[in-house]
Amino acid sequence: MKIDILTLFPEMFASPFSHSILKRAQEKKLLQINAINIRDFSRNKHHTVDDTPYGGGAGMVMGPESLFECFDYLEKKYGGKPGRVIMMCPQGEPFNQQYARELAREEHLVIVCGHYEGIDERVREALVTDEISIGDYVLTGGELPAMVVVDAVARMIPGVLGEAASAEDDSFYHGLLEYPHYTKPRSYRGYEVPEVLLSGHHENIRRWRRRQSLLRTLERRPELLTRATLTNEDKKILADLLHLLQSLNLS
């Protein structure tokens, strides 16, 4: 997969994408990330890309010229229009695991990082296919949200993670929160690893982990259960958990 990130601050992406899983994915040619400086496509001598808004108001707005020129460059580079063009903005569709899986099926993504008060609406109308928000809050620019999207999408690309099961066990992959993890030592400062994980009985371990996943989701994010695909076994576990929690509340 190729990901081109259009930004005023390409240096922000150097460190996050030069370590760990994303670094290895690029070394294995599974992922190609390019941070492109929007200022390089400015036609004025000061390389400015923003101006005051028509109609008045506070702040500055990123103009359309440099971004349109940048897309012209990408079309020439790749021999055609990019597939999905994502604008990071608070007004966008909320980003989630399902969205990440969908984007991971693409061969080429372009992510536009806004700054200042916003981006000229003509860029949105003519070039953007997706608007994404990572939460109901405002940041100083689209760079940090872009990093979040790239990281989440990259994990879904086949071969990026060492084991295919690693991504499938993540929180939200199947609509539920992940079960708790333990490693050595077996006992630490009076805190013990659950006996079932030491038993070597794979079916009992699977059932324990599923129960813990359902319990955590029920306690922390119960709204996820309305959208999750639940098996008959899951429904029985949830019924038992609800009965247990109700009895505890009554006692």
TrEMBL record:
Q: Cellular component terms, GO, for this chain's entry? A: cytosol
- The source's domain of life comes to Bacteria
Q: Which reaction does it catalyse?
A: guanosine(37) in tRNA + S-adenosyl-L-methionine = N(1)-methylguanosine(37) in tRNA + S-adenosyl-L-homocysteine + H(+)
Q: Which UniProt keywords apply?
A: Cytoplasm, Methyltransferase, S-adenosyl-L-methionine, Transferase, tRNA processing
* Assigned EC number: 2.1.1.228
| The UniProt record lists the keyword DNA-binding | no
Query: tRNA methyltransferase TRMD/TRM10-type domain: which residues?
Result: 1-226
Q: Which family does it belong to?
A: Belongs to the RNA methyltransferase TrmD family.
Q: What does this protein do?
A: Specifically methylates guanosine-37 in various tRNAs.
Record text on subunit structure and interactions? Homodimer.
Q: What is this protein called?
A: tRNA (guanine-N(1)-)-methyltransferase
